[in-house]
Amino acid sequence: QVQLVESGGGLVQPGGSLRLSCAASGSIFSIVAMGWYRQAPGKQRELVAAITSGGSTNYADSVKGRCTISRENAKNTVDLQMDRVKPEDTAVYYCNAVVNSGRYPYIGNYWGQGTQVTVSS
Asked: What is the pLDDT of residues 91-115, one digit of tens each?
């Protein structure tokens, strides 16, 4: 099993910045990709940003230019820096990891418990 522990979030004023961090631990041989998703009330969970072990990144159009995802492979951590936040960024943010355990069935998809981000003045 793999555990993902998230930190950061909370209440942020519009135009401000936030940083989310996630650390993976457990049965990890290698991590294929890590990322952040979010789910606002009444909406489906959506990708915010993701990064592969090779450093390739993917961002949602709604956060491009405002978000930076970074990863430290040796520590199995991923961070999300979001600047110029907007009220529409309010959501529960979930860390995600696609992990190779090194044994059958090898690849697993794991989620953190989520951290609330509220953008409001």
From this structure: 999 999 999 988 888 899 999 999 9
Q: How far apart are CA 10 and CA 64, in angstroms?
A: 21
**How far is Cα of residue 22 from the mean position of the Cα atoms in its chain?**
7
Among residues 17, 22, 2, 31, which one has the least CA distance to residue 93? Answer: 22
Please report, rounded to a whole number, the percentage of residues in the chain having pLDDT higher than 70: 100
Question: Is residue 29 within 8 Å of residue 101, measured between CB atoms?
Answer: yes
Assess whether the previous peptide bond of 87 is cis (omega < 30° from 0).
no
Rounded to 5 degrees, what are φ and ψ at 87? -55, -35
Question: How far lies 46's CA from each of 18, 50, 62, 74, 96, in Å?
Answer: 18, 11, 11, 27, 12
What does residue 51 show for φ and ψ, rounded to 5 degrees? -145, 135
Query: Model confidence at 87, in pLDDT bands (50, 70, 90)?
Result: very high
DSSP letter (8 states) at residue 13: -
Q: What is the mean pLDDT of the chain?
A: 95
What is d(CA 45, CA 39) in angstroms, rounded to the nearest whole number?
Answer: 4
